[in-house]
Amino acid sequence: MTLGTVFLALSLVFALAAALAWVREKAAVGKTLALASFLASALACAWLFWLILHDRFDIDYVWSYSSLDLPLVYKISAFWAGEQGSFLLWLFFHAAAGAALALRERLGNAGQAVFFFLQALLAALVLFYSPFFVTEGYAPADGAGMNPLLQDPWMAVHPPLVFLGYALLAVPYAASVGTLLSKQADGAEWLALARSWTRAAWSLLGAGIFVGAFWAYKVLGWGGWWGWDPVENSSLVPWLAAGALVHLLAVARARPANLALAHLAAIFSYALALYGTFLARSGLLGDFSVHSFSGTGVGLWLIAVDALVLLAGLLLLVWRAGKLPKGEQYAAHRSREFFLLLGCLALTFLAIIVFIGMSMPLLTGLGGESAAVDSGFYVKTSLPLALCMLLAMAAASLLRYGESRAALAALIPALFAGAAAAGLVGVRALPSLILAGAAAAAFFASILAGGRGAVRPAAVLAHAGTALALFTMALASAGVSTTIQFTPDEPQSFCGSSIVYEGMELSESRREKEFIFRVDGEEARALTKLSAGGEDAAREPAIVHGAAGDIYIAPAPTAVAHEIVLQRGKAILEGDLAFRLERVTQESDPDDESRAVFLADIAVTDGEKVDLAEVRLTAAGMKAATESFAVLDGRRRLRLVGISEDRKSIMLQILPALEEEARMPLAASVSDKPFLWLLWLSAAFVFVGTSLAVRRRG
Questions:
Q1: Which has the closest alpha carbon to 393: 404, 380, 379, 408?
Q2: What distance in Å separates the CA atoms of residue 537 and residue 515, rounded to the nearest whole number?
Q3: Other C-beta atoms within 10 Å of 299: how many?
Q4: What ranges do the domains of the chain cover?
Q5: Beta bridge partners of 617
Q6: CB neighbour list of residue 333: distance below 8 Å, 6 or more residues apart
Q7: With contact defined as beta carbons under 8 Å apart, do 115 and 101 qualify?
Q8: Contact status, residue 504 vs residue 516, Cβ threshold 8 Å
Q9: Over pLDDT 70: what percentage of the chain?
Q10: Residue 1, number of CB atoms within 10 A of its CB
Q11: Which neighbouring-strand residues pair with 550?
Q12: Strand order in the sheet with 512-519
């Protein structure tokens, strides 16, 4: 048993004991056990960091996600690069929240018991699906390394934000269930606590989603920032549910008859976070998502815990429904409460639609072959709901609680102005024009309501940011995308801009290629990261930012090499050159005896000159590295990519001269992204607004 496993076991025992202590209403004992559970989980995290930073490749998790040459920042993010580490991070965040709750003693005995029972379930998951398993049989000298796509600062930040948001959603769930279990089931005391923690969860989870979207836009090179990928949607659904919860908690404070809806939203928000994690981590989406993890036994555990959380909460709510306040849910159809509830209804239906879409591979798989919906499903179904949400948000912003007076007439000019502005940008689709108009009206309503003091500055920022984001999405339909065949130094015209491809540069490390473009005189570089074996491992587009939008250039994969099989003593004619394998030898790496170095001597001739190349392949466990070798004064480059077990034949990759490759034509997808900077600005508005709301009580 490793030290990390001991810490996890202690965290589990202390969490379970804390839950039992609060069941028995021994708050002082529960507080001590809560702090002990947090300390144990913190020590487990510290131990995993130590293992990663000290290159302990005998630990399977460290071997899988780290390597000797991995930069420090990505060695740190290797902690949460895989499933086991990300679950441990989730446990740490949950335990930290539990310690804070225990110290402040605001959740009540029943709520604390529920929270630490959830923590015990999470600790059990991490214990049985541990990042501390030891590799059996041997201790590798180097690790497999992190996926190059994840070696990006934004992806170092994205998972912690998402899992912190998930962890904090457990607080309103525990507050809700704890209240329903208590004698004061009809009480509203839990609302203030639940609202502050839900705001924090909503803010952080939203920030994580936007960071992931920016990473997808900047790194993946497929041309967009949101693809309605099922794993992307798995975090969007609980965020939508949490948005509804934030507003239902506010309405329930003004109108206690809405307490049942607040309880329902608290239960579903956390259950949907668990379900999204199950869907992403079970392997069920392996054929439908670029983000999905491979199938493991953790999926069964997650769905069982999710079912327990959801059913227990719902059954308890049904049992205690008679104790909850009755009465009017809103004063009038022109009241703020009504429009807040209408907006929550729109958010709920949005969450349901996205839930159905992302679950389609699972649902269809139950009856036969799995299938997924396309992005058109989401666009067509979510647009009417987005319009409803925007109009409800605009109306609610301009109304005070219980009032029937509205300044909705002032929004009509803003609506037409927004649609006209979209038309000037180039939007021609009627649904997009309507969305742009509604977004402009909601934006104007937020500013106007803030000026009148009808809503607080935090809400102004969050609502204006939401409206601005949807306005920018409406403009996306005006974007143009095409594929251009570039020849070095020959200008190409695109959307009024001149684009010149200047060629390719290979880095000194031979691990990166940069494709250099000049757009209206401004240089932009597209990056391709290469694996240790020389293959393309990850691509980043070239992006030129401007006030009117972005020019987005994503080079298409280009096959510059071809492979041949050489057998010892036999010559093969390939193009204008002949190749013959002389021999294959093996030796130990003088810097690391655990590495095997294979050397292949190859004779190359063009009929006039004979050159002898010594190409090499270095193997360490399951990891292999190879470098190209120039022959015939650089006319060709050779790379050894495979060796037969008897060493009588090899797989050889033939590449053109570096200067020739640098000047080869290049096909690239080129897109225009109108005013996309507004989307990132809107994300900042939403995050700042929701963050400011966290600081305000009530």
A1: 408
A2: 15
A3: 18
A4: 1-146, 482-559+662-674, 562-658
A5: 598, 626
A6: none
A7: yes
A8: yes
A9: 93
A10: 8
A11: 545, 673
A12: 492-494, 497-506, 512-519, 522-530, 536-540
State which amino acid sits at residue 197: W
Specify the 3-state DSSP secondary structure of 560: coil
Cα separation, 499 vs 250, in Å, equals 52
Q: Which two tokens stand for residue 72?
A: 């420090």
pLDDT number for residue 404: 41
Strands (E), 520-609: 522-530, 536-540, 542-546, 549-555, 562-567, 571-574, 577-589, 592-605
The CA–CA distances, whole Å, from 633 to 464, 630, 636, 637 equal: 63, 7, 8, 10
Under 8 Å between Cβ of 677 and 453 = no
Supply the pLDDT for residue 222: 64
Contact call for residues 657 and 637 (beta carbons, < 8 A): yes
Q: Tell me if 244 sits within 8 A of 201, measured CB to CB.
A: no
Q: Rounded to whole angstroms, how far apart are CA atoms 72 and 151?
A: 11
pLDDT digit string, tens, across residues 436-456 = 999 999 999 999 888 888 788
The candidate with the shortest Cα–Cα distance to 41, out of 77, 76, 10, 72, is 10
Query: Can you name the residues that pair with 352 across neighbouring β-strands?
Result: none
Q: Where would I find the H helices in 216-258? A: 230-254
- The answer to which of 280-284, 569-573, 596-600 has the lowest mean pLDDT is 280-284
Domain 1-146, CATH: 1.20.120
List alpha helices for 130-189, DSSP H. Answer: 153-168, 170-181
